[in-house]
Design the sequence.
């Protein structure tokens, strides 16, 4: 290797990632970190990527917020003061809300790839050029929530009972889905529970008294597992509808549920058998982390971050720069990336991608319905 080649190999693009890697809300963050780490390792192992006459490698700095907003603000300031231009995360709405005022101060100097639901509203605000939301929006004509509710109407659903955590995202979800169910002519009853709740029997009994057709519980496997088990064991209900979380709670209780309808961007267990990209991703995951692939722990987040790291690299190559975040953002907004998912961004900076609705029936039989809003 010549001296010039050595110098080129030392060029580094820093990526920061702030997610809950531990704690009760760590499922999404932990999987996101796994996906980003795998993508960075693959890109670097392949020799990096070329932009202009230089070759770059990625340096990934992953910080554990533990889901604590105050801790996240300190970590985020560290990334900004270190002039990190690309930040992945946070996925949690309460963490995003905490760091957003700080992020606004650095508008134009970095890009943030966040899955937080509250970022949807922030995208509409001025001076948020740094913001890209890596998750598709629930509502709207091609929103996954709209299509999920439409699926329920086809099952002649008349009453839904919603049981959500009393926090920032829980309240946002109630607002979103109250409108969607009303438009669909579906009656909605809502109960909220406090963070840390383990016994849901009182709330489940109250909701069951209204004789709902289906229960719409929580947004993370940490509570979904308990709610599904307690609801089926106590006879409060055996039909479930979720828009965040995995099908793991259904598979663990497959003989107790009747229906478990879930928004899952990719049904990895079936896609692994038919899609070479998915099979390669799962094989790479197992080899890199020396563990089985966690099909039941929100692999949607790992695949999302995995694709978005590659998408960022492609955008830097197309923009011809690793520093001009405005040009890189423009390249992202004009790109359709065909990775594990087919991803585009709308002009506000919000991702649109294909996804699956998974219907798990009693005994574990799975039906998959595919949707691809990127083709519309």
Sequence:
């Amino acid at each position: 290797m010549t001296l010039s080649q050595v110098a080129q190999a030392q060029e580094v693009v820093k990526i920061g990632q702030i997610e809950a890697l531990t704690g009760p809300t760590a499922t999404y963050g932990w999987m996101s970190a796994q996906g980003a780490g795998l993508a960075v390792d693959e890109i670097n192992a392949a020799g990096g990527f070329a932009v202009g006459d230089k070759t770059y490698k990625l340096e990934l700095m992953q910080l554990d917020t533990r889901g604590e907003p105050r801790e996240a603000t300190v970590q985020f300031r560290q990334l900004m003061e270190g002039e990190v231009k690309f930040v992945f995360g946070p996925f949690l709405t309460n963490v995003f809300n905490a760091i957003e005022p700080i992020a606004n101060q650095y508008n134009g100097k970095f890009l943030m790839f966040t899955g937080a639901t509250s970022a949807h509203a922030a995208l509409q605000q001025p001076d948020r050029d740094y913001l890209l939301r890596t998750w598709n929006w629930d509502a709207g004509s091609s929103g996954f929530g709209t299509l999920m509710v439409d699926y329920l109407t086809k099952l002649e659903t008349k009453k839904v009972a919603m049981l959500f955590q009393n926090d920032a995202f829980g309240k946002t979800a109630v607002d979103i889905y109250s409108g969607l169910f009303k438009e669909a002519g579906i009656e909605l009853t809502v109960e909220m529970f406090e963070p840390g709740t383990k016994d849901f029997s009182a709330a489940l009994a109250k909701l069951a008294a209204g004789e709902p057709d289906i229960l719409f519980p929580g947004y993370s496997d940490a509570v979904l597992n308990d709610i599904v088990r307690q609801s089926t064991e106590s006879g409060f209900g055996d039909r479930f509808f979720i828009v965040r979380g995995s099908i793991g709670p259904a598979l663990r209780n497959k003989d107790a549920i009747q229906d478990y309808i879930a928004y899952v961007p990719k049904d990895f267990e079936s896609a692994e058998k038919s899609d070479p990209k998915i099979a390669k991703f799962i094989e790479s995951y197992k080899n890199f982390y020396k563990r089985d692939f966690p099909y039941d722990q929100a692999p949607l987040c790992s695949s999302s971050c995995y694709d978005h790291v590659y998408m960022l690299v492609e955008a830097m190559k197309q923009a011809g720069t690793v520093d001009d975040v405005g040009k890189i953002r423009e390249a992202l907004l004009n790109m359709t990336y065909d990775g594990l998912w087919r991803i585009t961004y709308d002009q506000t900076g919000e991702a649109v991608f294909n996804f699956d609705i998974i219907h798990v029936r009693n005994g574990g039989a799975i039906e998959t319905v595919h949707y691809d809003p990127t083709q519309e």
